[in-house]
C-alpha cells in the first residue's frame, strides 16, 4: 500500500463538541486511497517539543479533501485546536490495516466510546454503501461531548446513545446497550469497536460470550507509525500458551478482539 507525505494547509478546524474539533484539509492522494480504519500521522509543528507526529483516523473523505475528528488530550492536540485556516500541516498516510467488512445475516454494530467513534465513521459510510443495516452505539461522558450523531443519522445509521451521567440517552455505558442488543438479536451481527482500552476489553468479553465476530481499532500510544520504534505494540495471543507483541501501526490498528490478550 502506498503512503504519501503531503504538505497541506488547514481548510477549516471547527469546534464540534466540548474539547473536540473537526479538521479539514486537502490531501488528494490520501483521500483517494484511504480505507475504513486507516490513519494519518500529522506533524503539527516543527517546534522541538512537538517533533513526534500524532496519529488520527481518517474520519471522512470528499473528493480531494479529508477530515479528522480529534479530542484535545495533551500539548499536540491543544496546539492543533488553536490553528486557523491556512496553517501548514504535514500529513503522512494512509497508514495501517483496515476494517474487514463482513456480510452476514445480522446487522453491523459499531461501538464508539468518546473520540473512538471517529475511527468508525468511514467504516459506517462503507457499510451503508454496501446496504448493510448498521447500528451505532455512541458513548460519551455527557451530552456536551457527544460526537457524530447527525453525521451517522445522515447516512442512514440507526444511533443509540449512552452517557455516563445520563444527560442524554441510556444512563450508563455503551456496553450495556450492546449486551441488550446481543441478547435480543435473532441473527448474528458483526461488531466493530473503538474507544478507551477498558471499553474495548469489556466489548470483547461480551461479544466473546455471545460468540459474535468482533474487530477492534486499537489506539495505543504511538511514536514513528512506520513499524520501526515498537512504541505502540500490543499483546496478541498466537495460541493458548503463546503471546506475541504486534505493532498497532503496521499489523493494526484493527485486530480481531479474540486475538488481543486484554488481561496484560
Ligand atoms: C491509530 C490511531 C488512531 C487515532 N485516531 C484518533 C482520532 O481519530 N481522534 C482522536 O481524537 N484521537 C485519535 N488517536 C489518539 C491521538 O493520537 C492522541 O490523543 C494524540 O496523539 C495525543 O497527542 P497530544 O500531543 O495531544 O498528547 P500528548 O499526551 O502530549 O502526546 C504525547 C505522545 O503520546 C502519544 N499519545 C498520547 N495519547 C495517545 C493516545 N490516546 N493514543 C495514541 N497516542 C497517544 C502522542 O502521539 C505523542 O507521541 C489515535 C491514536 C492512534 C494510535
Description:
By secondary structure, the chain is α/β, with parallel strands linked by helices. It folds into 3 domains: 4-93, Beta Barrel (Elongation Factor Tu (Ef-tu), domain 3), CATH 2.40.30.10; 108-217, Rossmann fold (3-Layer(aba) Sandwich); 219-264, Dihydroorotate dehydrogenase, electron transfer subunit (Dihydroorotate dehydrogenase B (pyrk subunit), domain 3), CATH 2.10.240.10. It contains 6 helices and 16 strands. The chain has helices spanning 28-33, 75-81, 121-129, 149-154, 174-184, 197-209, and strands spanning 4-17, 20-26, 39-43, 54-57, 60-62, 65-71, 88-95, 108-113, 134-140, 158-163, 170-171, 190-194, 214-217, 233-239, 242-247, 254-256. The strands form 3 sheets. A 7-stranded antiparallel beta sheet has the order 4-3-7-1-2-6-5. A 7-stranded mixed beta sheet has the order 11-10-9-8-12-13-16, with helices on both faces. A hairpin with a 2-residue loop joins strand 14 (233-239) and strand 15 (242-247). The longest helix is centred in the last third of the chain and has 13 residues, at 197-209. It is globular. The structure holds flavin-adenine dinucleotide. The site of flavin-adenine dinucleotide has 24 residues, from strand 4, strand 6 and helix 2.
